[in-house]
Specification:
This protein has 309 residues and is an alpha/beta fold. The chain has eleven helices and 13 strands.
């Protein structure tokens, strides 16, 4: 727990063996590498003090409520799964709905809300702001905590390429099709999850069936193209090639996600699957014939199968 001042070390020592709650403050809309450092530090303190880890986040209406066109890197259900992987039970996620009342809450009102949470410790990134107009920051949070004998940890920002790792940069990289860069900031493969729907059945007609995913409009997707992916079905991982975008060969303009899964035999319709993105391998083209499309997909498959990842 580098960077913890002596006073905070003393408070942590005094709290050993006492049941309590520790809360990580932020949006945590994708649990990127910077977010995970916050969670990891919180877990260390919770283990030492026998606290229970909690995390704050918003539901999927966040950007819509703000009148923003931004998309969510990970939807709430996906975030809850990531929280659980990080050791935070989903019931320990404090999920706020960005109603007009909540968005208008003052900084003092936000602190009053925290007063009712029975906290023993809080942690946030050093750029954390809260209250209407982002009026307060870590200085005010630390003062509030100090007055109540609550441990308050300020997490230094994690940087990559001389920039703070941020969800906005990850969204930007995805929008440009720069999957490798987005994955570097995430510290894991970006993924989408969804139930498999019945599609056109064209791929199946020439021996290359695809699984079509149902995804809500709030979900951020990579720039249109064909991607090298891995698909997880019932806990097993398969190599796959995934098309993100329209299907101009068949005159379709609506954006979708469909993946051809290698080595899988069985019925995936209705199943929830996870598609993890490794890299974008080409743009989408309109082919004159189905045969040309089939040949290109087979070429894409060979390229993915040659990948040793």
């Amino acid at each position: 727990m580098g960077g913890v001042c002596e006073t905070k070390k003393q408070r942590i020592a005094e709290n050993k063996g006492k049941k309590g709650r520790m809360l990580a403050l932020g949006f945590f809309d994708c649990l990127h590498r910077g977010h995970r450092e916050i969670v990891s530090r919180m877990q260390s303190v919770c283990s030492l003090c026998d606290f229970e880890p909690h995390i704050f986040t918003f539901d999927d209406d966040f950007f819509t409520a703000l009148g923003s066109n931004n998309k969510l890197v990970y939807l709430l259900e996906e975030r809850l799964e990531l929280f659980e992987e990080a050791g935070i039970p989903r019931e320990n996620a404090l999920i706020a709905s960005p109603s007009s009342d909540f968005l208008e809450i003052s900084a003092e009102g936000f602190l009053e809300m925290l007063d009712g949470c029975g906290l023993s410790a809080v942690i946030a990134g050093e750029d954390f702001r809260f209250g209407k107009g982002a009026a307060y920051g870590m200085n005010e949070l630390e003062e509030w905590a100090r007055e109540r004998g609550i441990i308050c940890l300020r997490q230094p920002l994690l940087k990559e390429w001389n920039r703070k790792i941020s969800s906005s940069d990850i969204r930007e990289y995805l929008s440009l099709g720069e999957v490798l860069a987005a994955n570097s900031l995430l510290g894991r493969r970006y993924f989408v999850e969804g139930a498999v729907l019945h599609g056109r059945g064209v791929g199946k007609s020439f021996g290359l069936p695809t699984a079509n995913l149902a995804l809500p409009p709030e979900k951020a997707l990579p720039f249109d193209g064909v991607c090298d992916t891995r698909t997880v079905i019932d806990g097993a991982t398969y190599r796959s090639v995934t098309n993100v975008g329209a299907c101009p060969t068949f005159g379709e303009t609506a954006k979708g996600v469909e993946t051809h899964i290698m080595g899988f035999e069985g019925d995936v319709y209705g199943k929830k699957i996870r598609v993890e993105f490794l890299d974008r391998i080409r743009s989408i083209f309109k082919f004159d014939t189905k045969e040309e499309l089939r040949q290109q997909i087979e070429s894409d498959i060979r390229r993915v199968m040659d990948d040793n990842d």
